[in-house]
Structure to design on (122 residues):
């Protein structure tokens, strides 16, 4: 009997966990240099809203044991490990509108959003 062993395939490159738009990176640099100096933005996904999930942003003094550290455009953010599967390939942006300004997410994993835009589902 002969046994053939195939050469192991090279692993596929995974997409980056998250990316920051230029405007999001600029806004975070300003926040990190001013009132939030010494802190890092932590991104998580929580269960709430009419569609079931919502992005949850908070400040952290340092990376926790379950945080993924993402650095893009010279800016570092933390991603809660429980949120990673929901955020793979997401781009974080910063938008200024007539009556509001804030971080937004372009998430290829989203299947829909609620009417007010506060929550999403995958």
């Amino acid at each position: 009997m002969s046994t053939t062993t195939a050469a192991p395939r090279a692993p596929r490159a995974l997409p980056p966990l998250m990316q920051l738009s230029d405007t999001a990176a600029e806004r975070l640099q300003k926040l990190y240099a001013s009132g939030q100096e010494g802190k890092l933005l932590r991104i998580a996904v929580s269960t709430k809203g009419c569609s079931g999930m919502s992005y949850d942003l908070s400040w952290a003094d340092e990376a926790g044991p379950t945080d993924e550290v993402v650095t893009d455009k010279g800016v570092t953010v933390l991603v809660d490990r429980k949120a990673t599967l929901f955020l793979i390939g997401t781009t974080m942006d910063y938008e200024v509108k007539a009556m509001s300004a804030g971080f937004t997410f372009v998430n290829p994993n989203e299947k829909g959003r609620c009417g007010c835009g506060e929550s999403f589902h995958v």
Summary: The chain has two helices and nine strands. The beta strands are 18-20, 40-47, 53-60, 67-72, 75-80, 90-96, 101-106, 112-113, 120-121.
